[in-house]
Design brief:
Blueprint: E1 3-8, H1 13-26, E2 30-36, H2 43-46, E3 54-61, E4 66-73, H3 78-88, E5 92-97, H4 120-130, H5 135-144, H6 151-164, H7 170-190, E6 195-200, H8 204-211, E7 241-248, H9 251-254, H10 267-276, H11 278-295, H12 302-318, H13 326-337, H14 360-370, H15 385-396, E8 406-410, H16 414-428, E9 434-438, E10 449-454, H17 460-467, H18 474-487, H19 493-506, H20 509-523, H21 529-545, H22 555-573, H23 583-598, H24 607-619, H25 625-638, H26 648-656, H27 660-673, H28 676-679, H29 694-703, H30 707-721, H31 726-739, H32 756-775
Parallel strand pairs: 1-6, 2-5, 2-6
Antiparallel strand pairs: 3-4, 3-7, 8-10, 9-10
Amino acid sequence: MSAVFLGVRHHSPACARLVERTVEELRPALVLVEGPAEMNGRLDELLLGHELPVAVFSHYRDEQRAATSWAPLCDYSPEWVALRAGRAAGAEVRFIDLPAWHPAFAERTNRYADAEVRYAEATERLCRHFAVDSSDALWDRLFEVEPYDGLAGRLDAYFALVRGDATADAGDRARETYMAAWVRAAVEAAGDRPVLVVTGGFHQPALRALTGSGGEGAAGDDWERGEDGWPRVPAPPEGAMAGSFLVPYSFRQLDAFAGYQSGMPSPGYYQRVWDSGPRAAADGLLRVVVERLRARKFPVSTADLIAARSLAQGLTTLRGHPSPARIDVLDGLAGALITDDLDQPLPWTARGTLSTGVHPAVVEMLAACGGDRTGRLHPGTPAPPLVHDVAARLAALALDGDAGTSYRLDLTDATDLERSRALHRLRVLGIPGHGRTSGPEHGIDPVFTERWEAGSAPGREAALVEAGAYGATLAEAAAVALAERTRAATTGADELAKTLFDAVLCGMDGFSEQLLGELSARVGGLRTVEPLGGILATALGLWRHDRVFGTAHGPLLAAVIEGATARLLWLLEGARGAAGVDRPRLRAVVAVRDTVVHAPDLLSVTRATVAGIARRISEDQQAPVDLRGASFGLYRALAEEPDTAGDPADAVRAVARSGADALGDWLAGLFALARDEVTGVVGEDGTGAGGGSLIDVLDGLVLALPDEEFLAGLPALRQAFAFFPPRERQRIAGRLLERRGVRGSSRSLLRTTADPLLIAGARTLEESVSRLLARYDLGATS
């Protein structure tokens, strides 16, 4: 007996109905389904009685590659219907596709990803012929709203056409060869009874060719068979971790408008089509859209609803649809409810996620189409060990409170520290349910308490199962997840610094060593200053202060600090750039200063050498102005005889000759490193403490600026003084009042009634108008 091939579109109600009726009529001995063959021994688990949608989550990890993928199933997925109906008919049911870990699925996160990208040319021709905007509208026109009679023939013709224009890649060819081996084995085992093969339509023509037109005779390489007569299921390489578990899924995850790239969009709508047919689904969609819009105070009258229904019916007739299609209903709603000009095409005319600026009514229409159903696993569904370990850990640490429970943790207390580590491990694994509202944010943050809030956790069950791919225990899984972040090719130095601090918060001493080794290896090859500054600041803070987490004065931290400092000095001396203030670069210079001052024994360069480098940069006219100012401050902070660098007042006067913009940038660099150059000579009472201060020099220079130049340089000057905290700015304001012999509160200079830039601009405009009036002898008389 031959095999009967049904090519389907994943998550198509029409295809699901065809599969169901074919099983009833054919009564096959075997039903073969595109799906992970490693699940064949667990089909009873898959058919326990879950609330769909659910998905088979598969994971793989070795030293070179890590991959995860999902095979989602809902009530109207043809694969699910084949499993359910085949079992009900007494057939033997088998999955026949390669395991998800196989290289054939490389870079593919969804087993049922359609091949539409590869046969776009054919679908575009069909769209033009049938005058529709998208492949989804084309599919509805040809299959979902057409009568059932002749459906199988139309599907065969469609898939033969689109596969004829497409070339399968190496991954698909490997999968098809493997599935063909299953078909040949099934035909042999079935004897004179039929075999039903349900696969994605893209694969159907190839499987026919590989198995012979009648399902007999090999056309291609066969796979080695096991003792049971079926093709062997490939095993993961030795040392690799791989597995599959069931997870809850949701309509939102299935929806193409939320990023799902396979099968049908608008799962809520097609669930109605499956349950009640296209006409009832159209009526239901109209009702739900209106209810959602009214709930959000969007004005929708009864007349609007009647107009939308009439438009949808008219479009159905005009387009020759025997029943309303999804696009008929959506276009009717848009025509009746949207009177504004739209800035972009309606999103159902193409594939993809929603972009910003979509009309609110359109958003609600698509939300109604998408639905809000979330699947639920049967209580007897096996779960990975991590799920049980997390439940036990949270119970043991009294962290299993209901939503709204608040936890205040003292990080100096051993029990609270362990509770903090457990919560951070959940955080790095992306497990919802607990959110941190306060706590240390980086390695030099002197905060020793944390606050966490337990909240609602939609998707927590699925996230725990998926995190089980990283390990059997919470500590192991978090360590593997952080190690994966560290090894990622796209991970930059700034992300490595964050990962380091996350590892410290998670309390993973062994993993921290691995991460520090990775950091030490990378810092020498980094080409930008900014991320290196972040790494150095984090590592130095942990080395100096981390008595709570236990990493202070660690040798690997010392290696990171020495490597980052040496690389930063080299990069800073060669820095070139446009005008402006680069705050991350200035923070990197601050980190170098702190390292030389607080951890000199870790460095291979001496304090005098660093001071010499700083002096050279400060005198280099090709270096960025803000960096020159910072280097001037760095030299004065480190040199044994800082006065050899010159008088700060003279340096300020020299920079001012280049304009107020350059002066502001240079001062920003100086103030980032050495605010004492200003405040050190201004007493608490605002009076000078010596023979003139830098603030006096700056005051004189600013007063001498022409109005136009002052206005141009004012933003840069304001940015420079933003490095001072409010108390120090108040003392500087007091000094300025004293210089002018003005009595009063210095706060008056810090609290203006409007933006200082606006005030200065208005004053300049008034003076310009006055000069113009005077020129024409139109000045006001007293």
